[in-house]
Design goal:
- Pfam families: cNMP_binding, HTH_Crp_2.
- It comes from Prauserella sediminis.
- This is CRP-like cAMP-binding protein.
- Keywords: DNA-binding, Transcription, Transcription regulation.
- GO terms for molecular function: DNA binding; DNA-binding transcription factor activity.
- 35% of the residues are buried.
- The protein has 235 residues and is of the alpha+beta class.
- 40% of the residues lie in helices and 24% in strands.
- The model has no long low-confidence stretch (mean pLDDT 89).
- The protein contains nine helices and twelve strands.
- The longest helix has 23 residues.
- It folds into two domains: 132 residues, Sandwich (Jelly Rolls); 82 residues, Winged helix-like DNA-binding domain superfamily/Winged helix DNA-binding domain (Arc Repressor Mutant, subunit A), CATH 1.10.10.10.
- The N and C termini lie far apart (43 Å).
Length: 235
């Protein structure tokens, strides 16, 4: 744990930095706490600071080409959010909102302090470029995916990604650190809720997932990953 930060998940900015840089970045700004459902960032607001997530899970929310709500990505411990509006002088407004799915604690870092850190630490700047490029690809895909033709493989990919981001192993399989309702999943995959329920029923019949009321767990992650990678077909 660095500066009160939960162990960063693989692929986050903190994960790409060595221990001294993690500590330095984690000491910037001030600690700020958000409750479940509270907005960390509002779309259209000016980019006056970035946030380093130290604990909890938040969803990055935007719109697709038709104006429908889409969960573009998920942020957890080790993720940096809000950097695009801070670093791009031509687009200094927030391009998406960020909403807490649980209690979320961040280091809120003013833009000048963050820029000064990147100026001094080229390794962090390079790591940020890698993360920003990956995040841009994910967001672009989420905004353009055809909701009416969502495949079993795509749903499996999204569920597998969520487990990497905010999942943990249990004695019965895998669960999420925050509850994902069918409505949340429909916005994240993204697809219509009726289509999602039909597809999830097939996963459940195959013993890959289990559903309790409105929430799901993953009973067989190995098979889920096989479907996600195209090694097993459910169609």
């Amino acid at each position: 744990m660095v500066g009160g930060t939960q162990q960063p998940r693989p692929g986050t900015l903190l994960d790409l930095l060595d221990e001294p840089l993690r500590g330095e970045l984690g000491s910037l700004g001030i600690s700020t706490r958000f409750s479940r459902g509270e907005r960390l960032i509002h779309v259209g607001d000016p980019g006056e600071w970035v946030m380093l997530v130290t604990s909890g899970v938040a969803q990055v929310v935007g719109e697709d080409a038709n104006g429908a709500t889409v969960i573009l990505d998920v942020a957890a411990a080790g993720d940096l959010i809000g950097e695009a509006a801070v670093l791009d002088p031509d687009h200094p407004q927030r391009m998406a909102s960020v909403v807490a799915m649980s209690t979320v604690v961040v280091r809120r870092i003013p833009a000048p302090e963050f820029r000064a850190f990147l100026d001094k630490r080229s390794e962090a700047a390079i790591g940020l470029l890698v993360i920003a490029n990956r995040r841009m690809r994910i967001a672009q895909h989420q905004r353009t995916v055809t909701q009416t033709r969502v495949s079993f493989q795509h749903i499996a990919e999204r569920l597998d990604y969520l487990l990497d981001t905010c999942g943990y192993r249990t004695e019965h399989g895998w669960a999420f650190t925050v509850p994902w309702t069918r409505e949340d999943l429909a916005d994240f995959i993204p697809t219509g809720r009726t289509t999602l329920i039909t597809k999830l029923t097939r996963f459940e019949e195959q013993g890959i997932i289990a559903r309790a009321r409105k929430f799901i767990t993953v009973a067989d992650r190995a098979r889920l990953t096989a479907v996600a990678q195209g090694r097993t077909a459910l169609d």
